[in-house]
Amino acid sequence: MITILNDDFSQLNDFLHEKSFSKIFILVDENTHEYCLPTLLGNMETDLGFEILEIEAGEEMKNIQTANQLWEILTEMQADRKALVINLGGGVITDMGGFVASTYKRGIQFINIPTTLLSMCDASIGGKTGIDLMHYKNMVGTFAFPEQIFIFPKFLETLPFKELRSGFAEMLKHGLIADTSHWNQLIQIQKLEVGTVTPHIQTSMNIKQEVVEKDFHESNIRKTLNFGHTIGHSVESLCLQQGNPILHGEAVAMGMISEAHLAYLEGLISEDDSKLIIENIQRYYPYLDISDFKDEDITALLMNDKKNTDSKINFSLLTGIGSCTYDHQCSQKNILEAIHFYKKLNDL
Ligand SMILES: NC(=O)c1ccc[n+]([C@@H]2O[C@H](COP(=O)([O-])OP(=O)(O)OC[C@H]3O[C@@H](n4cnc5c(N)ncnc54)[C@H](O)[C@@H]3O)[C@@H](O)[C@H]2O)c1
Ligand SMILES: O=C(O)C(=O)C[C@@H](O)[C@H](O)[C@H](O)COP(=O)(O)O
Ligand SMILES: [Zn+2]
């Protein structure tokens, strides 16, 4: 269940009173510790004891070493099966905290309080938890629903612009795969800022939630939420491997451009639609220089995509603006052409 908190955290406090938790563990990173934790603690009313668990910020922390440290701390602090983990942060915190909670003592309860646009509209919803393995994205994880999701949009006021723009990519994705009018409304936005994106958060969340309700374990329609992620995750992983990480939404924006062109090459959308999609994404996202990335390095990563079956790459591709298919296998020639198309975009 998702609850939007306005100025008052009473629904969170009611939740904490109604359930008989033994103790609370609040997971933060250094930034959400500074910018979001004071608001949470100032509004949280509970007799339960709590501990703060802090990790460094960034995707590089979403790994087994951090998970191990958190499992050890929970053990040292004698967290029992009635303990509650509160994930206060962006997608790194909700993915990592959800993974740690859903595996510790075979699973303790957790709630998500997302603090980035990306985690409000996407990562905190749907119960995909996980960590990266080597540089491969989200390779180890669980499907585990948070008990509750509490959204406090005012947290966005301290979010850096690049992070806001990163989250906006997933909102555009939601419009493109499922809701033409959401896409049309989003592309009306001239200047990305908290005031212009906040009115669209609820619609974007609803799109994600509706898809997840139909297919929690990603057997079918949930794969559409991975549009832009097949190529996007490969590029994100390569950047991570090179010690030069990019933001998830930046990778998704790049991936959506490349995969929109791929959908055109595969005859799924018209050239006009693919151009319209690409031009609009380019309005918000600067060109990502992948000219040094070798085709074979990108395609090697594609071969490990989680959607693959029988050594075949299964793409989730648009069939129009507002509709998406999945398990679509493309010719190798078109895959390479879609990657080259992106590489050459800067020359046009
Ligand atoms: N599970 C899912 O369904 C799902 C969906 C989309 C993305 N993801 C994952 O989410 C991650 C990306 O999430 P993200 O973009 O939120 O990144 P993030 O968690 O790294 O947060 C981005 C940055 O903003 C800072 N920050 C967070 N809230 C802030 C605030 N209110 N004010 C100031 N600074 C703040 C963080 O400390 C961090 O530096 C990726 O690992 C991605 O794979 C998961
Ligand atoms: O919730 C989903 O399903 C998604 O695909 C949402 C994506 O935005 C998100 O990045 C997700 O983590 C990608 O899934 P993965 O299974 O490829 O890691
Ligand atoms: Zn994503």
Task: Write structural notes for this entry.
The chain is an alpha/beta fold. The chain has 2 domains: 2-158, Rossmann fold (3-Layer(aba) Sandwich), CATH 3.40.50; 161-347, Dehydroquinate synthase-like, alpha domain (Up-down Bundle). It has 15 helices and 10 strands. It has helices spanning 10-18, 30-35, 37-43, 64-76, 91-103, 117-123, 161-178, 180-186, 194-197, 201-214, 229-241, 248-265, 271-284, 295-302, 332-344, and strands spanning 2-4, 24-29, 50-55, 84-89, 109-114, 128-133, 136-143, 149-151, 315-320, 323-328. The protein has a 4-stranded parallel sheet with strand order 3-2-4-5. A two-stranded parallel sheet has the order 1-8. It has a two-stranded antiparallel sheet with strand order 6-7. A hairpin with a 2-residue loop joins strand 6 (128-133) and strand 7. It is globular. The ligand O=C(O)C(=O)C[C@@H](O)[C@H](O)[C@H](O)COP(=O)(O)O is lined by residues 122, 126, 128, 137-138, 170, 218, 222, 225-226, 229, 306. The site of nicotinamide-adenine-dinucleotide (NAD) has 32 residues, from helix 2, helix 5, helix 6, strand 7 and helix 7. Residues 53-165 form the 3-dehydroquinate synthase N-terminal domain. GO terms for molecular function: 3-dehydroquinate synthase activity; metal ion binding; nucleotide binding.
